[in-house]
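Key idea: predict the complex, not the pieces.
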Amino acid sequence: MRMSELSSRSGLAIATIKYYLREGLLPQGRPLAATRADYDESHLRRLRLIRALLEVGRLPIASIKQIISAVDDDSLPTHVMLGVARHALSAAVAPEPGDDWSEAEHDAERLIAAQGWRIGRRAPARAELVQTLHRLRQLELSTDLGHHAELAHRLVTEIEIPSVTPDGPRDSTVESVVLGTVLYGKAFDALRRLAREAAEAEVSLSTAPDA
Amino acid sequence: MRMSELSSRSGLAIATIKYYLREGLLPQGRPLAATRADYDESHLRRLRLIRALLEVGRLPIASIKQIISAVDDDSLPTHVMLGVARHALSAAVAPEPGDDWSEAEHDAERLIAAQGWRIGRRAPARAELVQTLHRLRQLELSTDLGHHAELAHRLVTEIEIPSVTPDGPRDSTVESVVLGTVLYGKAFDALRRLAREAAEAEVSLSTAPDA
DNA sequence: CATCGGTGGATACTAGCACTATCCAAACCG
DNA sequence: CGGTTTGGATAGTGCTAGTATCCACCGATG
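Result:
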């Protein structure tokens, strides 16, 4: 297909697609002539991947590029590629040295140990957990996340992992891991907020006699 | 306390604090003279609230301002204020008309009905759920989120809601709702990613004979 | 065969966001 | 009394994710 068809089918402006080509997020089409190239379904799917990570996952273009480069680099072993992807999925967290921060690190350590998880020392998700615990401390909110960890563990092991198909081509492996993390994460967050809204409506109905 | 103490205790540059004052995120201090004002613990706490929403929740300043304005406006009934806050917590989602989108709306409807939630028609979290379902469809991933909804429901009703104290001054009510949504949401997401990392390590240990 | 609109490729420009920097005059502190 | 801090106003910065413009070219149309 031509650029204009890729544009209309993806819903993206031609200028935007050219930008992704420039940035290396989208592979070049098969060149037919100096001013003509042919794109196929894989390009369309790639665009959908980009937009899902960008709009739903709110990942910066630079992180998406890291993920895509790792996928496209056939010399990387799969587990390295997954490491790169996981790293790109997290925002960088700057430690704020101080007592609260060290306490938060210990809290995180305890949570992880209690679940029996084996986690790389510099896993980005660990830093995000520490940051959040740090803020909870500062604001004097409960840092007891044991039940959350428990439920997260069950969600992943009982529901999410069994539905992943680890075979197939390597790009679909990363895609499913990355998209699974981002999309099901966002989905769960939306569901959680809906549950809160419903629950809070219940509470105010029961406590407020009438308006 | 003076500006410089507020700055050192919060870890924020004076220029940044002045910016928040300009934007109305931080109330003016009690004026002592034309070039002197007095700030107290409430200002410090407000700064921590702002930074938690900004860094952990990644909310734009404009949304934080909406939340704070609602909190500071005593004429708003509490449930209206909560509605404003909930609205500000979500990113705007533009519908992408098409078959996939309508299907996604139905999927969302079914999920909500299955949990028995009563949800406002234009709840922003609903739109985010629809958007995510839409992307899942486009990428041919499973849109079966029943178990996720189930777990989200249990997380909220069994763990998060009981720990909220709905009495007390109105600003602490909103604060706890908003911070609860943002911070525990982020915490759960980090825990979920850690659980995935641990689970995927298990899988590759068991399937990869050796390196 | 002429020409007209859709390309590929390069370069420059833009909007929005979250700050930062600079300046000023007043005021406090020793 | 002199150096430092402050409140208040205005202007500028760096980054991100695109947009816009220009050009030469090419391929289908009449």
